[in-house]
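Dear Dr. H.,

I hope your travels went smoothly. While you were away I took the liberty of generating a structure for the chain from your last submission, since the lab meeting agenda had it listed for discussion. I wanted you to have the full record in hand beforehand rather than looking at slides cold. The sequence, exactly as received, is reproduced here:
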Amino acid sequence: MRRGPRRTIRGHVIDSEHQFPLGYANIILYDKSSKAQITGTITDKDGYFQLTGIRPGIYTLEVKFMGYHAKTLEEIKIKPDQTDIDVGTIPLEQAVLLLEGIQIEGEKPAIEYQIDKKVINVGKQYTAVSGTAVDVLENVPSVTVDIEGNVRLRGSASFTVLIDSRPTVLEPSEALQQIPASTIDKIEIITNPSAKYDPEGISGILNIITKKGKLQGFQGITNLNTGLDEKYGSDLLLNSKGTKFDAYFGADYNKRVYPGKSKVESQTFAVDTTSFIYSIGDSRWERTFYGLRGGIDLHLSADDLWSLGLRSGGRAMKASSELDFDEWTDPGGTHTLYSNESSWEREGGYYSANMDYRHTFGKKDHKITGQVTVNRWNGEEKSTNQLLDRNGTNTSGQLSTEEGPSTRLYTKLDYSLPVSEKSRLETGYQSGLRRTEDITKMYDYNPALGEYEFKPEYSHTVEYRRDIHALYTTYSGEFGRLGYQGGLRGEYTDRFIELMGEDERFTINRLDFFPTAHVSYQDSRGDQLMASYTRRITRPRGWYLEPFLTWSDAFNVRQGNPDLKPEYIDSYEMGYQKKLGRNLLSLEGYYRMTHNKIERIRSVYDANIMLHSMENVGTDYSFGTELMLNLNEFKWWNLNLMGNLYNYWIKGVLYGDPFSQESFNWRTRVNNTFRVRTSTRIQINGIYNSPTVSSQGRREGFFTTHAAVKQDLINRKLTATLQVRDVFGTAKYESTSESTNFYSHRESSRKWPVVILNISYNFNNYRPDRQREEGREELEGGEGF
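The corresponding predicted structure, in token form, is as follows:
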């Protein structure tokens, strides 16, 4: 038996070719003579590790990281009188083989589970390569996507989207639908972020990291795609990387058209009369997005980095339908038959500019960073609805418009100080200033004149101002195998809304506090156990607060609620990760409670006309577990099983009446990737989403299947991917809403299958820049309002 004081072995793991750190590499220590495993750990995000509690003796140290050759340090001697051992820098070589003249590199998994987040490697999502970020998210844990492209993170549509760790001027769902999958390197899912991050959003943060090259010199990549039903697009990325200066430029254009069908059955109840309306017909959804982006990094010195980034683009979204209507009442029974032609358009342009600076003080983790980001958006929205009799004559109609600019300014200053070798203090200031003007107008069709007439009583101008100032501090450290972090964030909100010319103003001045706590434990085998608590907030969006009526079409009118309170969320999580040879098991449990729950409520405005308003309906609870099993038993087959099971319960008071709704929800995904040959991959994904409830109704479940074939050509410089989505036509949207005075059932589906071919060409051996992104995460901090 060995005697003597316990020692520590420490070291640093890096990529041998490009010198960037390898975070989350496996470190295992064995007894030299018995070969027995003594202890183990993983490197931190900067590639550093330490093994504590080691007695004097002779050991063997093994270092492993996916996609790299393992390295073994054969003889590490610790003498009784020796101090702590530093094995220095350990370079790992990428696993590169030459088979029949074709270069094959070690592959990264489609999904990586890290201590504080899930990382989706988009290049491995073959069934989504020609789509958008929404299509990628459909295949990953924690996220649900319905047929209309609406994204939910752990059952909630309230989350924050960052692009390259910076806030975006676009709404979360619109930002995800606009970014081409082919321009994305990875997506980070952070469900319980620390106090350093903006607490906005019920369910956390989705951080979209776009591609940049990593090799010295000039490289690039371009993609072309085309598919059935007017689907086509392209993108280009050019990158130049030197020792003191890095620069990149990207451009993209994509158009997607989705034909479909729609059916709606509605009933409204008066004292002694029930009004019925039934509609069925064709629909069409069209999206066109385009953008430019570029940036430079200047390495002013070994300790100073200055960056400038620019992003500009636009969008045009259109939805139209041609429906046949049947309308009648009971008693009465006379049916009125007519047609409805409706169209909705939203278009506009945006730009974003950011400047960043980082200075390090020569000691690991001792640094100060600053960032300024300006976003500007100018959009127009137009909705037209016409009712035609059986002769095709326009009998009535409505036209509504909404336009106005939105400007947002974000600033932040962060400071990180290592208090000791194992502990760190972080503190900082962040602000988000927003200015928005919305001009809404409405016109009614006059059949006698054959033109639309302006309706001033339904036309308004609103000015919206919201300023948020925040201070935060976190303290993190280690105690043996236990890691911990505690944090507190304080935010002051100053909000002002004014209806121009109507002498109505709504003001909020509020101070909120958001505590966070994270702990982790790693045993000697490298298995990890994590637990966390965070408090978060969801603030009402602009139009949620507008106190006037706005007509959406002839059958729907909306009205905001200036008295809405923000949602406050208490979120608890616990996770366990275990490696089983080449396989990985991840199990997470979560409990989330949302106070002042905001929901869109429907009520009867008039016969067959629904009023949509926003209300704080009560409190909801989600209690569930996520399971992910990644199996790599065969070199030719990777199987990824994911499941999310949770119980959802919402209760409260609506229009003076108490209510309670509950459902058991489950979602499962099965992702199969087959390596048919060295240069050929086949991927088949199956997805099922169960039914779920809301305060006034229920959304039905659905199942869908996607498939793709990827073929590498010309020494992997050229890649062709054929993807087929919704192979069997089973994806659909079906929901029911009801209350004491109305009932509504809606079904919609899209033309299937969706078939797209993507051709990708890279020149000068383009590869994604993992090192650059690690550096950017330090520089940007990954948070924003």
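Two observations you may find useful: The longest strand covers residues 274-301. Residues 159 and 201 are 4 Å apart (CA to CA).

With kind regards,
E. W.
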